[in-house]
Amino acid sequence: MIEARQEIKHHFKNWCNKNLPLLEEIESQHTISPNHWLKMGEDGLLGCMIHERYGGSGLSLANFTDMLSEISYHSPSLALSILAHSQLCADLIQTWGSEDQKQNYLPKLALGQLIGSTGISEDNAGSDALSMQTHLTDDYLLCGHKMWITNGPIANISIIYAKHRDEMSALIVDLTPQMKGPAFEKFGMKSSPTGRLTFNRHAVDPSSILPMAGHRILKTALDKERIALSAIPIGIMRRALNEMISHCSIRKQFGKPLAQKQLIGEKIATVHTHLSSSEALMEVTLNQPSISKLDAATLYLHASQCGMQAAELAMDSFGAMGYMVENKSTQLFQDVKLFQTGGGSIEIRKLLISHILTAHYCY
Fold it and tell me: What is the DSSP letter of 281?
């Protein structure tokens, strides 16, 4: 099992090295084009966790996190958009959808012919997601909006959570241009488009509703999302560490490489320790018999905080150049900042951990 996983991880690393011009183009042009999606679908990245009978590879969550880590080393934005497409959309259909829903959507999602997203947050329902106002009327008209939706401006379909008859439902919505707002200008993750989705009494076929209760889907999906999201700051930390080592081994001040300065060495050692502890915690979380809410929240809290500090230390190690926009460490800092808020804020993660440990649950 370990050898097979390492072989698959090596495959993803080779893909990144082979397609480095594509990854650099995505980062520099701040866009993921339809051709990029088709390329990734053809090469098997988008169907990583989709079962073979629906056109995917049938790989595990561990394989998926390995892929995200390798991609985020070069393009955190692309890793984020793949996560929203593959885990937050395709995997939910595969796990909770009807057979018709799986056959209708999964093969096209695996090939990149459809781009997926999911809609939970709203203007006034961020951390308090259950206070959402988007709803289905009794005659199945979808009303409301979703905010800060990764892939929203380019997605063809979205898993939308909405109130319905005093319950919550998750439904597959085929997005029209009128539903999609323009991409927001963001501090980081600039190649991963984020926007608003608006539903103005959109007629919904009851067959588009996922069979399982929406609140159950949401709670399990969030745990899995926190594990997958953690792979991106891990990839960012690896890049930050390598950037630091490369720069500090060459750059000289007072006649010696920066790496020989004890205070600079302390920064390198700290980033290495942050990376190693996050990778170890990832393995502990993945090796549980089933997904643990406590472990998922702990992993994501640790990896996001360590990633933020690692990027900041990388910037510091470059001195004045670390403050320049074109410096890679600056871009890493901008990208990793997302994980202080995205996928549930740090405060929510801490609250969740403390409530579980004291037997007072959040939900």
Answer: H
- Domain 2-111 listed as CATH 3.50.50.60: no
Strands 116-119 and 157-164 turn out to be: parallel
Q: How far is CA 32 from the centre of its chain?
A: 15
| Fold type of domain 215-357 | Butyryl-CoA Dehydrogenase, subunit A; domain 3 (1.20.140)
Q: What is the pLDDT of residue 166?
A: 86
In CATH, what class is 116-213?
A: mainly beta
CB hemisphere CA count around 176 (13 angstroms)? 8
- Which tens digits make up the pLDDT trace of 253-284? 999 999 999 999 999 999 999 999 999 999 99
Q: What distance in Å separates the CA atoms of residue 169 and residue 63, rounded to the nearest whole number?
A: 30
pTM score > 0.85 for this model?
yes
Q: Where are the domains of the chain?
A: 2-111, 116-213, 215-357
pLDDT of residue 361: 57
